[in-house]
Design brief:
With 342 residues, the chain is mainly α. It has helices at residues 4-10, 19-32, 40-53, 55-74, 79-83, 89-102, 107-132, 141-153, 182-194, 202-215, 217-236, 241-245, 251-263, 269-292, 303-315, 328-341.
C-alpha cells in the first residue's frame, strides 16, 4: 500500500517541500518499520500508542528514531533507505528500551537514548555488511546487540542505573499452569503486539494493531495470526497466565509471522504455514533466551524473533513452494545487502 503522505509529496504539497517536514515523515516511517511498514501514517499511530502508555515513551520513541535518522543523513547513508525508514526503527527500539529499563525521568536516560540511536546506526551498517554475504536482512539484530550491551553494562555506572539492586533474574522452573480466563486471552492477543515496544497494556496493542491495518490488511492479519500462535503455543506448554496476558510470551511470534508471510516471503498458504511454524518456534525460544540472559535481568528483547527469522529465511531457498517477496522493505534490505557486500 502506498503511503498517503508520500502521495501528497508526489503532488508537490507545499508542506512537504520543507526539509524538516521530509525528516518528520522519515522519522514516522522509521517507527513504522519496527513492524516492517514504510508508512508515516502507521508511524503516527505508533507514536499515539506509545503516548497512551505514557507521554514520555512517545517522546523517547521520536527522540531515538530522529537521532538514528539524522545520524544516517550525516554519514551519507543511501537516501532510499532513509526515506523508507530503514535507518530509524532500531534506534526507536533502543530509545524506548532505554526509557523502560533505565527509567524515563532521568537526563542520563535521555542522553543514552539519543547516543544509542546514533550508535545503532553504525552497528546496523556493520551487521548489514556481514549478513549481506548471505543476502539476509538485518532485522532488529542491531537493536538486540546494543540493548543487550546496555542492560548488561548499565548497573556498573551509578549515573545510569537508578534501580537499586542489580538486575540478576536467575532462571527458575515454571510452576503448575495457572487458570487462563477469557479476559487473559483477549488481553494477550493485543498485548503481544504492544510488547514489541515493551508495553504490556492491551489498549496500547490495539492502537498498534490499528496502525498496522491502516497500512496493510495482510500485515494486520499476519500480526493477528502470529499473536494467536504465540498465545496458543505458550498456553499449551504451560506458561503462567500473567505472562500470557502481558504479552511477554507471544510478541516474538507476532514479528516472525509478519516477516515470513508478506514481507520477506510472498503471501500464500505455504508461507502462512511456514510463518505459523516459525512463530511457534520463536515462542519456545523466548524463555530459553531469557534464561541465557538471566545475569543481566533476563531480557530476551527480540533475539528469538531475529534468530528464528534468520534461520527460516536462510532455509527458505531450499523449499520450492516458498517464494521471495517483492515488498518494499525486503527489496530495500536486499539492495543494501548487495551494496554492502560489493
Amino acid at each position: 500500500m502506498r503511503d498517503p503522505i508520500a502521495a501528497l509529496r508526489g503532488r508537490g504539497a507545499p508542506m512537504t517541500r520543507h526539509r524538516w517536514a521530509r525528516h518528520a515523515v522519515h522519522v514516522l516511517r522509521g517507527q513504522a518499520q519496527v513492524d516492517f511498514l514504510p508508512s508515516a501514517v502507521t508511524g503516527a499511530f505508533f507514536s499515539l500508542a506509545l503516548c497512551a502508555a505514557g507521554w514520555a515513551y512517545g517522546l523517547y520513541g521520536l527522540l531515538g528514531t530522529a537521532a538514528g535518522t539524522a545520524t544516517a543523513h550525516l554519514l551519507g547513508v543511501d537516501r532510499d533507505r532513509i526515506a523508507a525508514g530503514l535507518e530509524g526503527f532500531n534506534a526507536c527500539l533502543v530509545a524506548v528500551g532505554s526509557a523502560v529499563f533505565l527509567g524515563p525521568g532521568h537526563l542520563s536516560t535521555a542522553l543514552v537514548a539519543a547516543g544509542g540511536g546514533a550508535v545503532v546506526t553504525v552497528v546496523t551498517a556493520a551487521v548489514g555488511r556481514v549478513l549481506g554475504t548471505w543476502r539476509l536482512p538485518t532485522l532488529t539484530l542491531p537493536f538486540c546487540l546494543v540493548a543487550s550491551a546496555l542492560t548488561t553494562g548499565a548497573p556498573g555506572f551509578a549515573r545510569l542505573w537508578h534501580q537499586g539492586a542489580g538486575p540478576a533474574a536467575l532462571p527458575r522452573p515454571g510452576g503448575p499452569p495457572s487458570g487462563l480466563s477469557f479476559t487473559d486471552v483477549w488481553h494477550a492477543l493485543f498485548a503481544n503486539v504492544a510488547q514489541v515496544f515493551f508495553m504490556p497494556q492491551w489498549y496500547v496493542g490495539a492502537l498498534f494493531l490499528a496502525g498496522i491495518f491502516a497500512a496493510s490488511r495482510t500485515a494486520g492479519a499476519m500480526a493477528c495470526l502470529g499473536s494467536v500462535t504465540g498465545t496458543g503455543t505458550a498456553w499449551a506448554l504451560g506458561a503462567p497466565a500473567a505472562q500470557l496476558a502481558s504479552g511477554a510470551a507471544g510478541y516474538n511470534a507476532v514479528l516472525v509471522a509478519m516477516a515470513l508471510c508478506g514481507v520477506f516471503l510472498r503471501t500464500g498458504r505455504w508461507s502462512a504455514a511456514y510463518a505459523v511454524t516459525g512463530a511457534a518456534a520463536a515462542t519456545v525460544l523466548t524463555p530459553a533466551v531469557a534464561a541465557l540472559t538471566a545475569p543481566s535481568g533476563g531480557h530476551a528483547f527480540t533475539w528469538p524473533f531475529v534468530l528464528t527469522t534468520l534461520v527460516f529465511l536462510a532455509a527458505a531457498p531450499a523449499f520450492p513452494r516458498l517464494r521471495t517477496a517483492g515488498a518494499p522493505t525486503a527489496a530495500a534490505e536486499a539492495t543494501a545487502a548487495e551494496r554492502a557486500s560489493s
